Amino acid sequence: MKLLDAVSLGVAVAFAAPAGMLGVETLLAGDHTGWVFLGFAAAILACDRYVYTPTEIPALIAQSAATVVANPPDNDDDSDDAQ
Fold it and tell me: Which domain of life, per UniProt (predicted)?
């Protein structure tokens, strides 16, 4: 996990935690609308993890291209022994 990913997750948790705690307290009080707050908290965390912004897409493409280009070739030890 990269540093910016960790910071982004921390911000998402900071927004989702109060909604989740309110949902739990509301459910414990006997009101079923607490599920709405729990769903809202889960949606915040899911959006942070699975939804990409337009500014992240070029970075993801460049990262995958760099991974393909920078991978060293696999060396077979058997071919070196034949010489």
Answer: Archaea
User: Given pLDDT bands bounded at 50, 70 and 90, which one contains residue 66?
Assistant: confident
Calpha distance 24→16 (Å, rounded): 12
What average pLDDT does this structure show over 39-56?
88
Could you tell me the pTM of the whole model?
A: 0.63
Residues 6+ apart with CB under 8 A from 47: 12
CB contact burial 40-59 (16+ within 10 A = b; e otherwise): ebeebbeebeeeeeeeeeee
What pLDDT is stored for residue 78 in this prediction?
58
Instruction: Select from 6, 16, 1, 4 the least CA-distant residue to 56.
Output: 4
Secondary element (H or E) of residue 39 = helix 34-50
